Amino acid sequence: MVLKLNKGIKKDLSIVVANHLSSIKSVKVNQLKKEIMTFLEPLKTLNKKGRGSIMRLVEKDHRETVDKAINEFVIVMEQKPKRMLSQYMKFSCEKSVDERFSKFTFRERGRLIADEWNSLTEQQKKKYRPSKKERDDYTKSNVNFKKSLTNLKLQKL
User: Fold this and answer.
1) Rounded to whole angstroms, how far apart are CA atoms 63 and 30?
2) How far apart are CA 27 and CA 125, in angstroms?
3) Closest Cα to residue 152, out of 82, 83, 81, 77?
4) What is the pLDDT at residue 24?
5) What is the tens place of the pLDDT at every residue in 120-141?
6) Smallest Cα–Cα separation from 129: which of 90, 102, 82, 96?
7) Which end of the chain has a smaller Cβ tally under 10 Å, C or N?
8) Residue 29: CB atoms within 10 Å
9) Residue range 50-98, pLDDT digits in tens
10) How many CB atoms lie within 10 A of CB 70?
11) Which residues fall within 8 angstroms of residue 148, CB to CB, at 6 or more apart?
């Protein structure tokens, strides 16, 4: 599994790894976080090469523990819910499969769909709003994800 890393994910990963290492080493978590972040900074994804960068700063005896922490982090990040589509994106997805637009280029199709969207009334646009169930499901899954990420950050092996 390749995990795309943005600044927030890098920070979370550094916390998880630092917590696991601080239980092994007698070093403060904040010092380890800074050290780990310097290795994570140039990385765009967490793949084998990225894991190797992290493993270089860990002694051979403790690499298994850190690898376990990274695996747990990846599992939690896979649970992260995807954002809901906006009204316009739902409309756009519905219209882009329409046969009328198939002969146009991507750019022209986008313009035509945008023009069609702008000509809709508010009543017609309501059809594309996310339902209460969709919003509730997203909120619930997002809360569960944040809880599991928080628990992982606080966990030490």
Assistant:
1) 20
2) 56
3) 77
4) 59
5) 999 999 999 999 999 999 999 9
6) 90
7) N
8) 16
9) 777 777 767 777 778 778 888 888 888 888 898 899 999 999 988 888 8
10) 20
11) 76, 79
